[in-house]
Write a structure and sequence with these properties.
Layout (H helix, E strand, L loop, with lengths): L2 E8 L8 E8 L5 H11 L4 E6 L5 E6 L4 E2 L3 H14 L8 E5 L2 E8 L2 E7 L4 E2 L6 H5 L3 E6 L3 E6 L2 H6 L4 H4 L6 E7 L7 E7 L7 E2 L6 H12 L3 E6 L5 E8 L2 E6 L1 E9 L3
Parallel strand pairs: 2-3, 4-6, 11-12, 13-15
Antiparallel strand pairs: 1-2, 1-18, 3-4, 4-5, 6-7, 7-8, 8-17, 9-10, 10-11, 12-13, 13-14, 15-16, 16-17
Length: 266
C-alpha cells in the first residue's frame, strides 16, 4: 500500500526558499518507529504525519530526522497548505489539528495561511558562562523560554553575521538559541536567526514557526504593537507575519509545493 507524501516550502511564495517540510498523509495511525525512519529518509528539519479523524479534525505529529518533537510551526503551515491544495479541507474552512501542544488551527487569511499557536514569552536570565562568547555577541537582553534562549542585540548586522562555535553551543542544556534585533529594513520590524543545539540534529533552521511563540510576544511588547513582521535571515530566508491575540499568537505566511509522490515502503 502506498502513502501520499509531499515536500513544501513554508513561509515563502518562491520555490527553494523558506523552510522545507515533509507532509505524509496517513490512512491510519502509524508506528512511531516507522515515522521516525521516514523522517530520517526525508532528511528535512521536520516531517509532519497526518491522520484524518472521524470528527473531521486531524491528528498531527512532527519528527526531525532524529526525534519526535512537540511543536513545529513551518510543518503545520505546510500541512494546512496541502490539505487545501488537495481538497481534503474546503477552501474557506478551518483546518484543526490535535497535537502534543494541544489544538492548533489554520485559516486562509487573504493570500496567507494563518496558524493559531501558543505563546511562550521569554523570561530574563543571566547568560551562562561562555554563552555570548560562543556567538561573539554583545547582548542587550537574554531571555529563556520553556526550551530555548532568546538573545537580543542592538545591531541587526550582528544577527546576519552570527557564527556560533558549534562545540560550545552543544554544551547548552536547551533546545535552541534565537538571535534577534530590530530590522534595518523598513519592510520588517525585526530580524532573527535560530540555531538548534539539541539532539534534533539541526544546526540552523531556515524559518522556525515555533520560534515566533517567543519572538512575537517579545517584540510586540518592545514595539507596543499587536501586529508585527519578522524576517528570518537564514541562507534561504523567510517572512513571518505575527498577530498577538490574548495569550495566543497568530503566525502567518505563504507556502508552495515542491514535490508530491507516493511512499511505497512500509
Amino acid at each position: 500500500m502506498s502513502t501520499r507524501i509531499f515536500q513544501v516550502d513554508s513561509f515563502t511564495d518562491v520555490a527553494f526558499r523558506g523552510n522545507p517540510a515533509g507532509v505524509c498523509l496517513l490512512e491510519t495511525e502509524a508506528d512511531a518507529k516507522w515515522m521516525q525512519q521516514v523522517a530520517a529518509e526525508m532528511n528535512l528539519s521536520e516531517t509532519a504525519f497526518l491522520v484524518h479523524r472521524l470528527d473531521g479534525d486531524f491528528d498531527l505529529r512532527w519528527f526531525t530526522p532524529a526525534v519526535e518533537i512537540d511543536l513545529c510551526g513551518h510543518a503545520t503551515l505546510a500541512t494546512a497548505h496541502i490539505l487545501w491544495e488537495t481538497g481534503m479541507v474546503p477552501p474557506h474552512c478551518q483546518a484543526r489539528f490535535h497535537t502534543a501542544s494541544g489544538l492548533l488551527t489554520a485559516d486562509h487569511i487573504g493570500h496567507r495561511i494563518e496558524l493559531d499557536l501558543p505563546v511562550y514569552p521569554p523570561a530574563p536570565v543571566d547568560a551562562p558562562d561562555e554563552f555570548l562568547d560562543t556567538f561573539g555577541l554583545a547582548a542587550t537582553y537574554v531571555g529563556l523560554t520553556r526550551s530555548s534562549y532568546l538573545v537580543e542585540v542592538s545591531d541587526p548586522e550582528a544577527v546576519l553575521c552570527a557564527a556560533p562555535d558549534g562545540r560550545l553551543l552543544h554544551r547548552l542544556n536547551v533546545r535552541g538559541v534565537m538571535v534577534t534585533a530590530l530590522s534595518a529594513d523598513n519592510a520588517f520590524d525585526f530580524v532573527s536567526r535560530v540555531f538548534f543545539v539539541s539532539k534534533a540534529r539541526i544546526d540552523e533552521d531556515p524559518v522556525t514557526g515555533s520560534a515566533y511563540c517567543a519572538l512575537a510576544p517579545h517584540w510586540s511588547e518592545r514595539l507596543a504593537r499587536n501586529e508585527i513582521v519578522g524576517y528570518q535571515a537564514s541562507a534561504r530566508g523567510g517572512t513571518v507575519h505575527c498577530r498577538m491575540v490574548g495569550n495566543r499568537v497568530r503566525v502567518s505566511g505563504h507556502a508552495i509545493t515542491i514535490l508530491s509522490g507516493q511512499l511505497v515502503a512500509r
